[in-house]
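Quick check before the chapter quiz. The format below is the same one you will see on the exam, so make sure you can read both the input and the output lines.
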Amino acid sequence: MTRQSDAFDELLRLMRLETLEDNLFRGVSRDIGTERVFGGQVLAQALLAASYTVEDRQAHSLHAYFLRAGDHNAPIVYSVDRSRDGGSFSARRVVAIQHGRPIFTLAASFQVEEQGLEHQFEPPEVPSPAVSEPFAVLPSEEFDHMPKSMQRWLDRFGPFEFRAVRGSEPDHHEPQPPFKELWLELHGSLDDDPRLLRAILAYVSDFHLVGTATLPHGISWVQGNLIIASLDHAMWFHRDFKLDDWMLYVCDSPSSSGGRGLARGMIFNRQGQLVASTAQEGVIRLRRDDNAKVG
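Here is the expected output.
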């Protein structure tokens, strides 16, 4: 098997939750070479846990807060509160727990399928993925000399291929406008289970988003003196979609202040349909000493 197919299989394993009891689920984590669990993983697992308590309705929005760094060596327990089941909408609240403490909370809303008025922003005119540059995190000679733990962190991109359009060069140290566009594609095929599709899109939506807020400042996480961590994450699913082709992720950052940066995103399918929108705020601090901490 190839490295990418192994990574895809590992992603699917992360998406398999164990049912412990009614409204109680358990998930495993992946060691990405840092002290933290990847936020997109917890986001996706929590959304799945909520989805498993809802019938005949699909998630249309979620709002989440990252409270503590997750421990990849320990399982994560997801406790779901069935807040409300109405005629058209269902609301769920999820608390992710490790070592007896909440590390993450999520509120999600689900809706029965319904027809209504439609409009959307049009996607920007960008080069196709066929002519866009493959996303290179770092030149191979720099990557090979990095610590193994950092290489594992970078290797979390394995299940997906990213192709840069604008603002996606981590070793670019000049100030740029706060806009980022990139193509992404999943390396593997999935069943048309809308719960799994939404969870994996939530997973990948956590890549590259809040980093958009660093572009006007000419800084990047590869410099080693930048502290960047997600504080919250919101997502809206507008239309059904599949993950069998390229998708365009369009991000911008309206503001950075107070040690925080805000970023917004729109995800379009290859046909130009807007399938999801995202928003995220994160801590963005320049490291002043070895004792600097987030939170």
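If your answer matched, good. The two ends are 40 Å apart (CA to CA).
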